[in-house]
Write a structure and sequence with these properties.
mainly alpha, globular
Length: 301
Amino acid sequence: MRFTDLASIGKKDGKSYLASIGLIVFGYIASQFLGMLFLVPFFSSEKLAGLVNQEDFIHLLGKNGFLIFILFPFVVLFALILLAIRYIHKRPIKSVFTNRSHFDWNRVIFSFTIMSLILLIMLLFRLWMNDGLQMIFDWKKFLPMAFLILAFIPIQIAAEELLFRSYLMQGLKLRLAHNGHSALVSGIMFGLIHMGNPEISAIGFHLVFYYIAAGIFLSLVVLFDDGIELTLGYHAANNIFAALMITSDWQAFQTDAVFFDTSDPGNGVEAILSSLFFYFLLFFIFAKRFKWSQWKEIWSS
């Protein structure tokens, strides 16, 4: 039995999935509503009524306040997924993290380190090319922001990985009876939920294909590695590095980072093509390091 088959050890009827998905969706939306409700005592109705886009929220709450505002729902999402697994599907919590006898932190650290090194090399290359990066480092602003990033981002990425690479991917395997199809569908779903990101507005709708490619890559890593440890490390490195090192006025995380990106976001084609190269590279590194085998059987079973 592989990781994608672990949904079969618990309650897997339609009512259980309907109850779990209803709880997760309602809880996530309710947490966003409660976030808005929390602002009511502190700001006038006129200011709250003027909150239309991300810039309005940042102007009102500040960058750190907005960071907490957008990341808190993921804390709720993380808790709700685990509650649904344990009490609705009546499955062990470990079954949504790994198929190994224990959670492998070495895999998380390895993936986090490899991805961080790649991102650091790319950053150094941009600095060498003088590619529109302006240093804005201010330790008085950076340290509080870094604390929030390190406290919330791991929970945010864990919630996304649990939802798309565990819960939905395992549920899709039950319905589709094919590992490859469940990986592709969950990857596409992951890409589509990013349609509301500000990067899409700044660059264009075709950037969705970047997120779909990322989703499919991560789903395939989980499929072949039999757990989400590697994707947790990759996702954490990507989001933490982005939030701490480079910010801009057109991305989702606008923080008091080390550098501000003054360059034009471009058309996104370069980002899509370069990401495909790095996905192939990382997949090759993971496959060699962890000796993935029986690819045909794993893909089609």
